[in-house]
């Protein structure tokens, strides 16, 4: 089917129920395995925007110029933006029906992407964390409007993220306010070199999508860069940190902000912290099961804890574990170097199975729909 | 933990039907586990040597020999360090290297100043900076330490570190040998760590190839490759005991032990020959070094010799990282080395 506004909107109408009933229910209702979206490489170093059904069947693998990081799906159209990884100046709007590259979204001059973006729930707006290269590290929230006539995202403006080096952003349950992880690290144009490790300023900011700040809190350790986030249905926020200090220090790498409470350390065992090699990657919260999952690729370790009690549910080796996403039974986890896994956390025991997805080369985030 | 993870898939492959599983199993049982056992045994010997010296029954040289054996046991292990020793910050407890700011000397003396005498409990609770072989080496070899004259101050630290190392290697051995432990994870598939023998072999080879890269850094840093060509002798591994070359040799031997088991899987005979030659050349050049690395790097006349050795290591690394990995279909790295 050729890609036109009419066909896209038609497909969007058919998929409109996805947002309401959840992607899993939609795909399974059609007799299909859930669709996993992720940035991926191949052995030759080619970058792809990839879509695979969890049963291993490839939906598409679209070669692209730049390595991507996170993905955000449109709330009802069969579109997703694969967001360029820091310091990329490109992101890719993909037609999920066949992987067609609909648009290469270029960042504004003096801006680059940080790998993360989110579509607004009504589908018209997209927000991306970006670096102001005229003042390296100054975080901005780029605002883009989806032009349905032209099938393009169009830059509409920006507001500050009220911090330095923003990374992941997530919607709060009201769908209008955002929680933003300002990593606190300045990097220059076209560089991943960290310029201010002795003067980092990480912060967790909650603001509305128009830029009004509601709260700004900081981690206990100044060199603890807040990078990744997950938000529960009740508004509980969990963040994962990447510590820039000595490798042998023991510092908390997870923090939590429960509704109405200050941002504070999520208490995990010292032995578990030592397993993370100061680096956390992807976080997911299973709101129904009240579980929070986290990947630690440098420590080759995957964890799941009870969101309310912090009791350990899963603590297992997993080579270069990368993205983690919620499925009804628990979590699906990809790997940069090995096989992907599914963890069924229902009931009193956890079961795990290796998935039939391709092994390795998955980037650190995934989107399940 | 709410419960142990139950693997959904319980299909086990017959070991002998899969050459990669056979090689992985051989590596685990005949190379990796024995190397850990050797390290553990040498740590036990280190405890006895310190005891003899501190009780006046033996000379300092016996401790020095035991230290060098432990150091080389550890160096041999580094390219083989899959599993428990590479996890939980344990490797930092064995050796604090590189020590860019001479933290070992400062923190060792500060700890001794604050505890008279130093207790095992205090050492076990202290920073990893003072718990390992680098601090032991400082006490035993640094010119500023009057060990013979001040045994009361320094012997508790030697004994504390030796016991700490023995405890650490004992803990690691237990994690290898327990039911479902590392040895089992490298021999029975699938398991909680590896989906298949291919996954496990990839894990072992990644560590081994990374280990060769580490050798380049251990040579290149004191040569000044990261310092605009200005030599940094105090950044050589084990510079106080002048054991840098012996450590490099031990690590190269560990890497070669893995290669010799893997060779049978390589389809390209010419490549296997090149890798054999690269190991032999590197080993010969290390053996031919006429003096400790600490001294060699300080004389510009030795630069060609050292550059030649560095090139050999570089060739070995490239052959393994690119050609061997490609031949075996092993992926070397992705997010763990280059995440965001």
UniProtKB/TrEMBL annotation, chain B:
Q: Which residues form the Imelysin-like domain?
A: 33-318
Q: Does Signal count among this protein's keywords?
A: yes
Which positions, given as ranges, span the membrane? none
Q: Which InterPro entries match?
A: Imelysin-like, Imelysin-like_IPPA, Imelysin_sf
From what superkingdom does this record's organism come?
A: Bacteria
What Pfam families does this protein map onto? Peptidase_M75
Keywords, A to Z, come to:
Signal
Localization, UniProt: Cell envelope
GO terms for CC?
cell envelope
**What is the designated name of this protein?**
Imelysin
Which species is this UniProt entry from?
A: Alcanivorax profundi
Species lineage: Bacteria, Pseudomonadati, Pseudomonadota, Gammaproteobacteria, Oceanospirillales
